[in-house]
């Protein structure tokens, strides 16, 4: 061993050792892949073993690198298996598919000590069984027996190709030919086999089979198809017709049967060539078709031929069977004809007819119970092959045979059918006596009186028919005839008139015996004039002329007297001598002369004839048609009022005769033409649609007819709703001045008080003085303030809808006023040379405001690319924003002065750009409302330190052991209600602000706001019981015990942290190593991840994403993470971080608690304890915190080296161990420029 060591150390051995070392580092294949055959779906493994593998080993498929990973991306079924430490890089292919049929190589890439090597090419041959074979024929197409068919079967997509065999009913078909072709994919083959088959009727229902197999299958794949062979059926037979003679009315049930055939035969029935039925049933088990015919036999079926035909799809022609039937039937009707009424002694004739029957019928006659033999019979051919029979009978009638029945009987021997027809015999003879019931003939009757005349008659068959006649003419007004025991009567009611004077009324009695008897009477009647008529010889009557009228009264009994009248005015005429007239009366006449005026037109002149004996008179009138020129009515209006846009109607009240009056209208000396909205009606009234104010004025109408012309004037007054406009808009006035807002209306009528003003702003303001000057409305505002600026509306309403309005903008000019709240005076940003800050100021002023900026008293130069100014305006609000790029703590932490000015003055605001820090305290902390169990508080937020801030309320009462804290929700709310308080209890409240950098002092210089809750409300008031009081007292004692125990635990925890810190320092001096480096790296990551700084005085929050996903994204894209993204490594737990604005803590408060020797922090309850005197409040971040160890740590020393103090507060800021553990976290929270590094 010593010699070997000496040789190795000698210089002469060095070249040899180098050669050996170089040979050892060259890569080489120990095992190379070989060709492999595998069935589809199996697992294939290609072996590859590499000696001294130093390069990247991966597989190549068809020239494509698959990758060095064990699970190959994009190839879920591929994986490299084996032990890489032994050089095993075997390629495993699971569930082999056709795509895997390829060339594969194993290669080791070039390394620093070895060149690349490539293995032999190995082919993977994937065997694929054929898919299910199929026949290339239509399975729905049947075969016909006797024909030859070509059967083709294809076995698709096999590798290697499949062998195909054809079978019919289990017997292999000989003479089949097979060949191959390309499959659906590359490397796949289809096998096609063909054979010729002759179809037989016995093949129906047998199977054709196709078997396909290759070396992959253990048994063949089979496809079968059932043969459907068509062949003709046997001839049909009829069952159910034993005899050919059938009585009419019988229901025949016949069955036609056809055996065999495929498909089974279709059957149909015909009668004399007409189809009766096309329905049939098939019985596949018995291989037959049958059709049942239900035939109701009637006379029309006599000598009919019934036929049943069978046919299927392959029958060359139908096959049939037929039968002829003979029908025995009765006559459809027996008709008795002739006259069955006769006058006594006359001879009557009757006939009896029987329609067609088989066989023909025999006919006999009967009168009552006596048979009549005086008849003649004839027989002829009838319908449906039958015979008709006719019998004619003659007989002389007598009075004794009246009412007897005459019977005709028809009898059929074949069907034993008998049918009769009867008729009743009537024998006529005349009535015997007629008489009247009437007034005496010598008594005069008054015209208009109703007189009853009654006629009676007895005897006769039938009873007599009575008829009334006046002077030999029939009277139709007689009442209906009535009967009584021995005869008939008929009444005539006569309303007497002049024609009844000396008239003869006669009543006659007749019947079918054609012999008439009668009775008569005569009446005397008094009556007034039967007619009145006024005549004149003048054709046209004109105004101012005289008209002569003649009145002639007709016959009256006795004589009448004539008088004249015109309305209520009686006129005196000249009487004429009387004359004889019809109906035995006297006629009289009279003449009248009348001077005419236009008022006489259409009036009636009445002539009356009065009979003193009857105290009655009659009259007639003559309507005067007086022609005169147009005249306007006294009621014709002289003025018409109308509302604009409505329809105007100017009535024309004119009369004239003739009435064909032509009127023309003029407006402003222009003749009006009918067009558009201008129309005349039938009375020539003027109608104007959609009247406008231009249509107002005087309208003159001139009317003309054949007698002359006339004219009149009417004024049209068009009233319209007000329209209004501002005399000046906008109206500008300086602050404190007087503003006059004027609107002018166009309206008719102009009325007092038609103007009103309205303020369109949100807040209420005093409108000022409203006045009206004719058509103008004025709103005067004195001592104008900024509150008066805005939009005013002038409304004009003269009572005609709709009211009109116009808006007037009042612009109050004032010097600029800048927003100077706490959030406007500071802007925070990191001065790391990479952040961007926006410094904004906002001013309100009119007219337009212009801005200028200074930095530390020096006017800013915006030509510098690091500074950019943007100005925006919205109404009177003007905003100027200075954007500072790459903020530097040394250069940009300064006072930026914003000056806003216009023509009325200027305002100035100093804005300080500072580093991000804890927020400023709120201010104006005050009470809003208070109830018995709650208090609502309000405050004004201070500067948020450049970060999102939230608020926390603390409160206590006299009996409480310490303060209770409530986180305000939502976090950015400035009003909050504290609930769960006791009634009539004084509480001390205060509020402060918190952000990621720390917390502020309490509002209003740490002042306490003392509020006393109210008493219980009167409704539902309930005093607490003793148990609740005792429980409250017990709760106070328990709270006190918890506070004491918690204090002891804090002391013990501080001591543990102190000793742990000293022990860690000793360990840190001796072994900084990898643990220290790792801690430093994580500290740097924590500092970068927690530096979430807002850089503008318009504050926003930025959402944190999944840290694990962000880290992966950064690695894959080779980009750097933004400074406000949390990062984590695989060894750390991954969490989602959200901005504070999305965080929703519970709002209920709880007293402080202490548990055991360690008090864990609950990050969801948000309870805090006031146990420190001063120092910033450390916010608790939502993260996974480890449980700190107890002061007595039983781990071994090397196990305690990696333990670090917890990164969250434990309740006291004065524990030195805790301060040391928190130091690095606080450094990370500080701005970049305050971490001791130069900018």
Structural commentary:
- It holds the Pfam family Ig_3.
- The chain is mainly beta and 1239 residues long.
- It is flat, with a radius of gyration of 66 Å.
- Mean pLDDT is 80; it is low at 1-23, 1020-1036, 1068-1096 and 1098-1239.
Question: What key phrases describe this protein's structure?
Answer:
single chain, mainly beta, 10% helix, disordered N terminus, immunoglobulin domain, glycoprotein, Ig-like_dom
Helix content: under 10%
Structure class: mainly beta
Number of separate strands: 92
Tell me the fraction of residues in β-strands, as a range: 35-45%
Largest sheet: 8 strands, mixed
- Summed up, the helix count is 10
The low-confidence parts are 1-23, 1020-1036, 1068-1096, 1098-1239
Kindly, what is the distance between the CA atoms of the first and last residues, rounded to a whole number of angstroms? Answer: 65 Å
- Taking all residues together, what is the mean pLDDT? 80
Q: Based on CA inertia axes, which overall geometry fits?
A: flat
Radius of gyration: 66 Å
Signal peptide: 1-25
InterPro entries: CD80_C2-set, Cell_adhesion_signaling, FN3_dom, FN3_sf, Ig-like_dom, Ig-like_dom_sf, Ig-like_fold, Ig_I-set
Membrane topology: Single-pass type I membrane protein
GO molecular function, one term: cell adhesion molecule binding
Task: Spell out the blueprint of helices and strands.
Layout: H1 2-9, H2 14-25, E1 28-31, E2 36-39, E3 44-46, E4 49-51, E5 57-61, E6 64-65, E7 78-81, E8 90-93, E9 103-108, E10 117-118, E11 122-127, E12 134-135, E13 143-144, E14 148-158, E15 163-168, E16 171-172, E17 177-182, E18 189-198, E19 207-213, E20 221-226, E21 229-230, E22 237-239, E23 245-247, E24 251-259, E25 266-271, E26 274-277, E27 281-283, E28 288-296, E29 304-311, E30 319-328, E31 334-338, E32 341-343, E33 347-357, E34 362-367, E35 370-372, E36 375-381, E37 387-396, E38 405-412, E39 417-424, E40 426-428, E41 433-437, E42 444-446, E43 450-458, E44 465-470, E45 473-474, E46 482-483, E47 487-495, E48 504-510, E49 517-522, E50 524-526, E51 532-535, E52 541-542, E53 546-556, E54 561-566, E55 569-571, E56 574-581, E57 585-595, E58 604-611, E59 616-623, E60 626-632, E61 639-643, E62 648-650, E63 654-657, E64 662-667, E65 670-671, E66 678-680, E67 686-688, E68 697-705, E69 708-726, E70 731-734, E71 739-748, E72 755-759, E73 769-773, E74 776-781, E75 790-796, E76 804-818, H3 822-825, E77 826-828, ...
Parallel strand pairs: 2-11, 13-21, 23-30, 32-40, 42-50, 52-60, 61-69, 70-76, 77-84
Antiparallel strand pairs: 1-4, 3-8, 5-6, 5-9, 7-8, 9-10, 9-11, 12-14, 14-18, 15-16, 15-19, 17-18, 19-20, 22-24, 24-28, 25-26, 25-29, 27-28, 29-30, 31-33, 33-37, 34-35, 34-38, 36-37, 38-39, 41-43, 43-47, 44-45, 44-48, 46-47, 48-49, 51-53, 53-57, 54-55, 54-58, 56-57, 58-59, 60-63, 62-67, 64-65, ...
Helix pairs in contact: 6-10, 7-10
Domain Ig-like: 11-119, 235-326, 331-426, 431-518, 530-619, 630-717, 722-811, 816-912
Organism: Betta splendens (Siamese fighting fish)
Subcellular location: Membrane
């Amino acid at each position: 061993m010593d010699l070997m060591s000496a040789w190795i150390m000698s210089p002469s051995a060095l070249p040899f050792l180098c050669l050996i070392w170089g040979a050892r580092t060259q890569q080489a294949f120990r095992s190379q892949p070989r060709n492999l055959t595998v069935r589809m779906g199996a697992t294939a493994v290609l072996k590859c073993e590499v000696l001294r593998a130093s390069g990247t080993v991966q597989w190549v498929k068809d020239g494509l690198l698959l990758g060095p990973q064990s699970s190959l991306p994009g190839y879920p079924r591929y994986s490299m298996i084996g032990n890489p430490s032994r050089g095993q890089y075997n390629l495993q292919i699971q569930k082999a598919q056709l795509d895997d049929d390829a060339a594969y190589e194993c290669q080791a890439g070039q390394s620093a000590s070895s060149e690349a090597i490539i293995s032999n090419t190995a082919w993977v041959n994937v065997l694929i069984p054929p898919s299910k074979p199929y026949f290339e024929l239509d399975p729905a197409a049947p075969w016909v027996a006797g024909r030859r068919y070509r059967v083709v079967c294809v076995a698709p997509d096999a590798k290697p190709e499949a062998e195909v065999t054809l079978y019919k009913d289990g017997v292999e078909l000989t003479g089949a030919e097979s060949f191959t072709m390309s499959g659906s994919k590359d490397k796949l083959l289809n096998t096609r086999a063909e054979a010729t088959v002759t179809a037989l009727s016995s093949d129906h229902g047998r199977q054709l089979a196709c078997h396909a197999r290759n070396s992959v299958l253990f048994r063949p794949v089979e496809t079968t198809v059932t043969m459907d062979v068509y062949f003709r059926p046997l001839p049909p037979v009829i069952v159910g017709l034993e005899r050919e003679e059938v009585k009419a009315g019988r229901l025949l049930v016949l069955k036609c049967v056809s055996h065999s055939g495929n498909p089974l035969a279709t059957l149909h029935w015909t009668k004399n060539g007409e189809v009766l039925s096309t329905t049939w049933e098939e019985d596949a088990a018995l291989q037959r078709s049958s059709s049942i015919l239900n035939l109701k036999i009637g006379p029309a079926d006599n000598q009919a031929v019934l036929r049943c035909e069978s046919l299927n799809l392959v029958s060359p022609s139908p096959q049939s069977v037929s039968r002829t039937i003979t029908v025995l039937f009765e006559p459809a009707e027996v008709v008795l004809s002739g006259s069955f009424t006769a006058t006594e002694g006359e001879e009557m004739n009757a006939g009896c007819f029987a329609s067609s029957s088989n066989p023909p019928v025999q006919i006999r006659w009967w009168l009552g119970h006596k048979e009549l033999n005086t008849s003649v019979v004839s027989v002829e051919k009838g319908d449906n092959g039958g015979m008709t029979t006719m019998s004619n009978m003659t007989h002389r009638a007598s009075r004794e045979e009246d009412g007897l029945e005459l019977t005709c009987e028809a009898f059929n021997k074949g069907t034993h059918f008998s049918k009769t027809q009867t008729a009743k015999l009537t024998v006529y003879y005349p009535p015997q006596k007629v008489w009247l019931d009437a007034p005496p003939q010598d008594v005069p009757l008054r015209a208009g009186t109703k007189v009853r005349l009654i006629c009676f008659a007895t005897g006769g068959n039938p009873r007599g028919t009575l008829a009334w006649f006046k002077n030999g003419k029939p009277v139709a007004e007689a009442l209906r005839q009535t009967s009584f025991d021995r005869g008939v009567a008929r009444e005539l009611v006569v309303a007497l008139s002049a024609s009844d004077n000396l008239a003869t009324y006669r009543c006659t009695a007749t019947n079918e015996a054609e012999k008439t008897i009668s009775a008569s009477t005569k009446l005397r009647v008094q009556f007034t004039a039967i007619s009145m008529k006024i005549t004149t010889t003048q054709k046209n009557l004109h105004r101012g002329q005289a008209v002569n009228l003649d009145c002639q009264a007709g016959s009256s009994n006795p004589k009448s007297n004539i008088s004249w009248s015109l309305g209520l005015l009686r006129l005196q005429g000249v009487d004429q001598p009387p004359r004889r007239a019809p109906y035995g009366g006297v006629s009289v006449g009279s003449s009248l002369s009348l001077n005419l005026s236009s008022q006489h037109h259409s009036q009636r002149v009445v002539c009356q004839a009065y009979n003193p004996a009857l105290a009655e008179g009659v009259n007639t009138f003559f309507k005067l048609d007086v022609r005169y020129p147009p005249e306007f009515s006294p009621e014709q209006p002289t003025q018409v009022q109308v509302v604009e846009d409505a329809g105007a109607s100017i009535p024309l009240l004119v009369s004239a005769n003739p009435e064909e009056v032509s009127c023309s209208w003029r407006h402003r000396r222009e003749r009006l033409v009918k067009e558009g909205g201008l129309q005349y009606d039938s009375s020539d009234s003027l109608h104007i649609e959609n009247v406008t104010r231009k249509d107002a004025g005087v309208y003159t109408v001139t009317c003309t007819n054949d007698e002359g012309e006339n004219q009149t004037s009417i004024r049209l007054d068009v009233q319209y709703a007000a329209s209004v406009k501002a005399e000046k808009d906008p109206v500008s006035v300086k602050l404190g001045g007087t503003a006059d807002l004027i609107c002018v209306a166009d309206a008719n009528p102009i009325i007092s008080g038609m103007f009103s003003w309205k303020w369109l702003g949100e807040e209420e303001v005093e409108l000022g003085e409203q006045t009206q000057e004719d058509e103008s409305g004025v709103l005067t505002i004195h001592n104008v303030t900024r509150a008066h600026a805005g939009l005013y509306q002038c409304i004009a309403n003269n009572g005609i809808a709709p009211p009109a309005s116009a808006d007037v903008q009042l612009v109050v000019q004032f010097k600029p006023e800048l927003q100077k709240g706490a959030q406007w005076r500071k802007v925070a940003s990191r001065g790391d040379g990479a952040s961007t800050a926006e410094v904004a100021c906002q001013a309100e002023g009119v007219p337009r405001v212009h801005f200028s900026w200074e930095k530390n008293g020096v006017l800013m130069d915006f030509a510098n690319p690091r500074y950019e100014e943007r100005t925006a305006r919205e109404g009177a609000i003007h905003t100027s924003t200075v954007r500072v790029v790459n903020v530097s703590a040394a250069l940009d932490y300064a006072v930026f002065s914003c000056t806003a000015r216009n023509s009325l003055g200027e305002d100035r605001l100093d804005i300080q750009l500072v580093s991000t820090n804890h927020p400023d305290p709120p201010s104006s902390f005050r009470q809003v409302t208070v109830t018995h169990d709650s208090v609502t508080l309000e405050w004004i937020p201070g500067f948020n330190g450049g970060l999102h801030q939230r608020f926390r309320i603390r409160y206590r009462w006299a009996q409480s052991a310490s303060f209770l804290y409530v986180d305000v929700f939502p976090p950015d709310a400035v009003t909050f209600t504290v609930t769960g308080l006791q009634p009539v209890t004084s509480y001390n409240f205060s509020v402060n602000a918190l952000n990621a950098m720390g917390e502020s002092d309490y509002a209003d210089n740490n002042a306490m706001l003392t509020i006393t809750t109210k008493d219980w409300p009167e409704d539902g008031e309930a005093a607490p019981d003793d148990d609740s009081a005792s429980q409250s007292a017990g709760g106070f004692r328990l709270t006190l015990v918890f506070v004491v125990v918690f204090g002891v635990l804090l002391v013990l925890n501080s001591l543990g942290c102190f000793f742990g810190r000293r022990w860690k320092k000793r360990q840190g001096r001796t072994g900084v190593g990898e643990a220290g480096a790792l801690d430093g790296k994580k500290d740097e990551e924590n500092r970068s991840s927690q530096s979430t700084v807002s850089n503008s005085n318009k504050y926003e929050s930025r959402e944190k994403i999944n840290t694990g996903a962000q880290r992966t994204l950064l690695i894959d894209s080779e980009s750097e993470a933004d400074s406000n993204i949390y990062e984590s490594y695989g060894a750390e737990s991954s969490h989602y971080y959200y901005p504070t604005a999305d965080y929703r803590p519970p709002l209920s408060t709880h007293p402080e608690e202490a548990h055991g020797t360690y008090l864990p922090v609950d990050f969801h309850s948000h309870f805090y304890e006031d146990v420190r005197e001063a120092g910033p409040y450390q916010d608790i971040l939502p993260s996974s915190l480890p449980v700190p160890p107890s002061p007595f740590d039983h781990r071994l020393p090397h196990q305690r080296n990696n333990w670090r103090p917890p990164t969250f507060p434990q309740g006291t800021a004065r524990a030195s161990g805790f301060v040391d553990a928190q130091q690095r976290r606080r450094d990370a929270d500080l701005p970049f420029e305050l971490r001791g590094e130069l900018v």
